[in-house]
Amino acid sequence: MLKKIPWLIAALTLPLHAEIHVSTGFEGGNAEVVSLDQATKTLRIMPALHEERGWPCWWYFKLDGLTAGDEFTLEVQAQTKPFREKTVLSATWCQPKHAWISGDGETWTPSDKGTPGADKTMIYKIKAAAAQMSVAWGPPFVPADAEKLLAGLAEKLPGSKRFELAKTRGGRPVQGIRIGDEDAPHQVWVGARHHAWEAGGSQVGRGFVLWYAGDEARELRAKTCLHYIPIMDVDNAALGAGGKDAVPRDHNRDWDAGPVYPEVAAAQRMIRDIHAKHGLDVYIDLHNPGHDDPVFFFGPFAFERMTGVQQRNYQRWIDLAAASIIKPYHVHPKYRFANYVKTEEERGRMSSGWVRNHTGDFTISVTLETGWNSPLMSVEGYSNIGAGLGRALAAYIVENPRRK
After folding, report:
1. Confidence of residue 1 (pLDDT cuts 50, 70, 90)
2. Average pLDDT for residues 260-287, to the nearest whole number?
3. Residue 378's domain is classified under what CATH number?
4. The pTM is what?
């Protein structure tokens, strides 16, 4: 009788080829599997459509069943269904030049540059570093990341105060933190993610607030109170939905007398209160722009007609920002203007427009748009832009913007 060899028996019972599995059942996860060829390790996805929740452009999923060293092919196509009325989103929004890969959910690196496919796909060749890996449109920033960031700030800066801005329509908390004396002579509001897909805005915000909490910003903190919101559209960020052009409107078009979203209404109340008690010096809204855009600020439509303190402050801001935001890209040295917004009514219910209309002449209210479609726009790259934003703010506050 042949002697049984345990390791041989075990080996013979293993499957010859482990199957690849795709999962999206986690915070920020999003992908609709179009096809998966196990033999060639080729996966085709498109961003899943969340009805009435805006652009289907963000994707983020986990892969199991790979072997370290395996090469698999990812094909990304546009969502085929309309996201609003009869509008199908252009593929350019869901096809970055590089996919982003992580083995631990913390460290993200870009893939090799994708190549356009014959059937309007973007094709990425990716080498697996482990049996499980995460793949995303860009370095993610989800509500759990916001919680971790705010908890760390509160621990580092005992004088800071965390607050809940509001509960969303979905019952999720929108979290913020106040750093500095509530009665400080200068007041600043910085927030991100009025559009949930624009995860880079939160990455810039993280770089900014970590710089603000560091030694370099000690003098700035002594005379400034910062109000910081890492994610405004928490519901869609958690669901992996795009948010922009949601029904009936998105967060950045909700700033009127009757907001749809509780967090927008709460932000309006807080900003009114801050300005009434102390005056608001700076409002900055953090976004990502189009796929070919650089790093730039949207400024006020009336900039060329401004005079006095208002004109001086807006000009000083863009000059200081151009001198301070230099890594990994220089910010554009002149304002751009959202000329695609055609009516005064719509301009007035954009967040920066509403703040401008409800504060003082010395207040500046701007939007920072950080170009995302580059391998340099890593977590570190975004953080460098955030630190540059902080240095611009410090230089701006040094010379009192309220002086006559």
Report:
1. very low
2. 98
3. 3.40.630.10
4. 0.94
DSSP letters of 120-188? S-EEEEEE-SSSEEEEESS----HHHHHHHHHHHHHH-TT-EEEEEEE-TTS-EEEEEEES-TT-SEEE
In which residue are the tokens 């390790």 written?
41
Q: List the domain range (segments joined by +) for residue 332.
A: 143-398
Q: What is the mean pLDDT of the chain?
A: 94
> 326 and 194, same structural domain?
yes
376: left (phi over 0), alpha (psi -120 to 50) or beta: alpha
Amino acid of residue 3: K
Calpha distance 322→333 (Å, rounded): 5
The conformation of residue 263, written as its DSSP 8-state character, comes to H
Number of domains in the chain: 2
The two tokens of residue 262 are 């509780």
Domain boundary among 109, 136, 163: 136
366, HSE (Cβ side, Cα atoms, 13 Å): 26
Q: Is the confidence at residue 205, as pLDDT, over 80?
A: yes
Would the pLDDT of 339 be above 90?
Answer: no
Residue 372 lies in a domain: yes
pLDDT at 354 over 70: yes
What percent of the chain shows pLDDT beyond 70?
Answer: 96
